[in-house]
Write a structure and sequence with these properties.
Layout (H helix, E strand, L loop, with lengths): L13 E7 L2 E9 L32 E10 L5 E6 L2 E4 L7 E7 L6 E7 L7 H11 L5 E8 L7 H9 L13 E7 L5 E6 L1 E9 L19 E6 L6 E6 L2 E4 L27
Parallel strand pairs: 3-8
Antiparallel strand pairs: 1-2, 3-4, 3-11, 4-5, 6-7, 6-8, 8-9, 9-10, 12-13, 13-14
Length: 275
C-alpha cells in the first residue's frame, strides 16, 4: 500500500497509518507518540459495460433456408430465439416460458406452426404439443427453443415425440436448463444442444417431390391397359390408358359419379373400342 516506515519500525515505537487497498496512496507517521488524519471521499465504482454486438449477414440460400435457434435457462439469460432465413420468428421479447416451437412445411419452408407450450406450469401443455405435432405433415421442419424452464411437466408422451425425431438429450433435460433442437418429422435427422445457454443452426434444403416417368413398351400380341380411379377427396376422377393412349381422361370424368368403363373385343384393333 506504499508504506516506507514499516521497514524501520522499532521495538515499542508508535506507528499510525492510513492507506487504501490496491492503491499506493498512504499517510503514515512513526515515533514515540504520533497521530495523523485526512479527509477522504467515498470510493467511486466505475462500471464498464461491454456490449459486443455480433452482426450476422444472412445470405439467401437457394432452394432452402438457414435456420438458427438459441436457448437459455432462467439463471443463464432466460431467453429463446428462432431465426429462419434472416427473419426473427421468435425473439427474446416474444419467447415464452417452456417450449417455443416453430414448424415449417417441407416444400417452401412456410410457417405452419408458431406456438409456445408452458411445460413448466401448465399440466395440459404437453398434451397440446403432442396433438399439434401429429397434425403436421411428414417432412415438416421442427425448430424448438426452451426459455426459462420446460422439464417440470414435460410428459413422457411429449418426450416420445422428440425421441421419434432422434433426440437423445431431451430425456436428460434438467430443471431450468436450456435446450435447442432442429429436426424433420418422419426422419431421424436432427441437431440438438442441451446446457445452461446453448444454440445450434443448419441449412436445410426444400423437400423435392420425385416424379417417375414411365416408359411404356409395345406389347406383342396383346395390349397395355392402365386404370386410375380416385374418390372425391382425392380428386374425383378416373382414367383408362390403353397402349399409351388415354381412352377415358381426367377432364371428361372429373366429378362424374358412377362407373366409367370401356370394353374391347378379344382380337382388339384400333377402332374396335366401346366406351
Amino acid at each position: 500500500m506504499g508504506s516506507k516506515a514499516i521497514d524501520s519500525l522499532k521495538f515499542r515505537e508508535g506507528w499510525a497509518f492510513i492507506g487504501i487497498k490496491g492503491l499506493k496512496k498512504t499517510k503514515e507517521k512513526k515515533g514515540q507518540k504520533v497521530s495523523l488524519a485526512m479527509i477522504m471521499g467515498y470510493g467511486k465504482i466505475e462500471r464498464k459495460e461491454v456490449r459486443k454486438e455480433i452482426k450476422v449477414k444472412h445470405q439467401k440460400v437457394k432452394g432452402g433456408s438457414r435456420i438458427e435457434v438459441q436457448s437459455a435457462g432462467y439463471k443463464h439469460g432466460n431467453f429463446a430465439t428462432v431465426n429462419v432465413a434472416g427473419k426473427m420468428l421468435i425473439s427474446r421479447k416474444t419467447a415464452k416460458r417452456g417450449l417455443n416451437v416453430v414448424a415449417l412445411e417441407p416444400f417452401k419452408h412456410e410457417i405452419v406452426l408458431n406456438q409456445a407450450y408452458d411445460t413448466y406450469g401448465d399440466a395440459k401443455a404437453s398434451k397440446r404439443f403432442v396433438k399439434d405435432f401429429k397434425r403436421l405433415p411428414t417432412g415438416s421442419v421442427i425448430v424448438i427453443g426452451v426459455k426459462d424452464e420446460a422439464s417440470n411437466k414435460l410428459s413422457g408422451e411429449a418426450k416420445d415425440v422428440f425421441a421419434a425425431l432422434g433426440s437423445k438429450e431431451v430425456a436428460n433435460l434438467k430443471f431450468r436448463e436450456g435446450f435447442a433442437f432442429i429436426g424433420v418429422k418422419g426422419q431421424i435427422k436432427f441437431l440438438e444442444k442441451r446446457g445452461n445457454a446453448v444454440g445450434t443452426g443448419a441449412i436445410l434444403s426444400y423437400a423435392v417431390v420425385e416424379r417417375k416417368k414411365e416408359i411404356r413398351g409395345k406389347v406383342d400380341g396383346g395390349s397395355s391397359i392402365e386404370i386410375v380411379s380416385a374418390n372425391q377427396k382425392e380428386g374425383g376422377m378416373g382414367k383408362i390408358i390403353l397402349n399409351g393412349s388415354q381412352i377415358l381422361t381426367r377432364s371428361n370424368s372429373l366429378y362424374k359419379v358412377g362407373l366409367r368403363g370401356a370394353t374391347m373385343s378379344s382380337n382388339y384393333r384400333k377402332g374396335d373400342l366401346n366406351k
